[in-house]
Amino acid sequence: MTVWIALGLGVLIGAFLGALGGGGAILTVPALVYLLHQTAQDATTSSVIIVGAAAVTGMIGYARSGHVRWRLGLVFGAAGILTAYAGTALDRQVDQHCLLIGFAAVTLAAATAMLLRSPTRTEVSAEPVPVTAGTAPIPLVGDTAGDPPAAGVSTDPALPGFPRWFARPAVKIILAGLGVGFLTGFFGVGGGFVIVPALVLLFGLPMPVAAATSLLIIAVNSVVSLAARVSTAHFNWSIIVPFTIAAMTASLAGKLIAGRLPDKILTRTFAVLLIAIGVFVAVQNITQLA
């Protein structure tokens, strides 16, 4: 029975991961804890393997259609290597109920950011717009006559009020990579529930491109996090193997789903999924601590 549950969950999670570049990953830890009865620490370790393998498979499907932004994804992933190790070390020191409540809080924060973001940014192309002679660059928010930006303040619509240096692409990639690396190590979820909003909000990628690039970053972070866990982790291969195989297979189908649905539907589906999982996990673990 356990094998069949693992297979079914793998299909569900792989489909979400392939379609959304995340979402399926945040289902993995609760599924392993509540349906397959692993401890939070064992579940985060199993999740790293399952999510990492499914991410690689889904990424291959997206790469064929040219959606993966390789340079952005590799730099983003590399920036989080050290913090992934730090998050993994901390994971072993935290009570499992507190760990899952923290997981729920980050999930709800990511969902809120996705729902509140400006809808016009979902339609921004991932490719730079060329500027030719005789044309002017498109003005950013606040960069218009009569409404000049404050000195030293970013004009990036996603970062209003932040210092100008904070809006530089290299700074955004490094800071976002550091944060996602820590979350991957700590929660064992690949970080897709944070990576996709970051790629959409900070870099203006449309949802399909953000999902594809997210899978590359998840794969990099998962390898690093797994390397940090190998010497101390407990691996239940009777669960991990069927779960992983099913998730890898379904992630390819998820890519096909993403290609048939509008960007807005994918974004809202992702956010609603995050809210549902976050509320469930929070209620379950707050009740346990009370």
From TrEMBL:
Main location: membrane
Membrane topology: Multi-pass membrane protein
Pfam families assigned: TauE
Subcellular location: Cell membrane; Membrane
Keyword Glycosyltransferase on entry: no
GO cellular component: plasma membrane
Swiss-Prot/TrEMBL keywords: Cell membrane, Membrane, Transmembrane, Transmembrane helix
Protein origin, superkingdom: Bacteria
Annotated transmembrane regions: 6-36, 43-62, 68-86, 98-116, 173-202, 209-228, 234-253, 265-286
Family: Belongs to the 4-toluene sulfonate uptake permease (TSUP) (TC 2.A.102) family.
Name the record gives this protein: Probable membrane transporter protein
Species of origin: Nakamurella sp. A5-74
Organism placement in taxonomy: Bacteria, Bacillati, Actinomycetota, Actinomycetes, Nakamurellales
